[in-house]
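Incident review: delayed structure delivery

Summary: a single-chain prediction request sat in the queue longer than the usual turnaround. Root cause was a stuck worker, restarted by the on-call engineer. No data loss occurred. The affected request and its eventual output are reproduced below so the record is complete for anyone auditing the incident later.

Affected input:
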Amino acid sequence: MAIVAEVGKIVSLLMKRPITEDVALEVEATEGFEHLEIEDGTWVGFDEEEHMGGEEHGWTETLILNALSNWVLATRTGRIYPGDTNFVLEGTSQEIIVKRRPDIAFVRSEKVNPSKGYVYGAPDLAIEIISPTERPAAIRKKLREYLDHGVEQVWQVYIDSQEIIIHYPEGTSKTYGVGQVISGLDLLPGFTLELAWVFQS
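Output delivered after worker restart:
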């Protein structure tokens, strides 16, 4: 009976509209539903295969996260957030329209708003480590959402091909491979990232 009640509870929560922050937090507190995101005011991400990280994903994420964290701590230019941080790109605490969880995110100091809940507004940098099982249409949609809502750079990390593609709001992109170095320029002044180090075996 307890299992039936728990199932009924999560189904009821998933059907509530609009999706408020309180509802979303309760959904994410339920085991197996932590990874869900919101598109157009509706829950998405029920296909677990698209969200399976795996060892390679986790290690690559750790390397990039640590490199950025060390730079942020040295320069005090903002904050770095791991993949369990929720960014509401569109909406309010009473009606969430678009909510994403980039694998890694950077927010400039002047935009940081400490809280115990979600981050309302887009990060300045969003990094997604692309799983081989992710559908191209879903990857493109998420990329467009980030850029349309004010993200300055979106990094798509492809482990198999050992490439990082950086996308910009004006529609341009640049691809980096092993042997090349990403420079932070205006967004991440003084930061550099060697791809050979990121994709070390």
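Verification: The chain has a mean pLDDT of 93.
Action items: add queue-age alerting; document worker restart procedure.
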